[in-house]
């Protein structure tokens, strides 16, 4: 695939853009690749550019999780301070997480990065999908699902169970949560997670690394930010690692799709549809597992 055209900087208008010019100039100076230079200085500058790229990526990726956690804790503290009754519904907890974590924090950090570096919305490669890309949207979730099944089968063969996921536990306890969660996955979680991690972070890393390295680094960060979703549900380190490997596998697919299609819309839809597919499976399991078991036992009796 041809290299992406470097994103264009936003126009500068007056002294109010001075902070933007300073940050953008620093970014460009540190990350510029010296094709014509030789000697130790050029090599050091290239290394500094790569280190800076990883620092920016990690700061944005992990910073989103830390900031989201701080906002949620701040909201809960405020409710307690002003003696406001906290709703006990799991939908309230998820809604707060989606609104603060994905919409406000991930969307806000993405917008702040674009502003600070003087980039425009073109930096994000948001386009209407072509017919081929629509096919990718339809097939992509099943590719991610197949990879996770394969990873879990390897874990089962080694006697390792994946760590329980907090969202899966909520849906298992309240299957009706699936109905509001599916639109949230398609409209909030998929788009805003991909906006930050693929649209901003992976694109940023491709300026300093080859595409495979950028995809890998982004995917590792993406997998690690999901640790709070499984941490505390189990103390078994192998189970946590198995779940993280599954997340890494899915993230690699998301990154490869974005790099191949150069379209954030496509990977956002794949992500949202994959999460929605998992929710449907959790709903079927929670609602109809006993019926399916009885049907299977009856069928076995009839066959015998």
Q: State the share of residues found in helices, binned by percent.
A: over 70%
Low-confidence stretches: 7-17, 33-37
Query: Span between N and C termini?
Result: 57 Å
Rg, Cα atoms, Å? 22 Å
What is the strand content? under 5%
How many structural domains? 1
Summarize the structure.
The chain is an all-alpha fold. It has helices at residues 18-31, 40-81, 90-117, 131-157, 166-173, 178-205, 211-224, 227-230, 237-261, 264-303.
Give the tags.
304 residues; mainly alpha; 10 helices; 0% strand
Describe this structure in words.
- The longest helix has 42 residues.
- 76% of the residues lie in helices and 0% in strands.
- The protein has 304 residues and is mostly helical.
- It has one domain.
- The protein starts with 17 loop residues before the first helix and ends with a helix.
- Helix 4 runs antiparallel to helix 9 and helix 7 crosses helix 9.
- It is globular and about 70 Å long.
- About 5% of the residues have low confidence.
- It contains 10 helices and no strands.
Sequence-ordered SSE layout with sheet pairings:
Layout lengths: L17 H14 L8 H42 L8 H28 L13 H27 L8 H8 L4 H28 L5 H14 L2 H4 L6 H25 L2 H40 L1
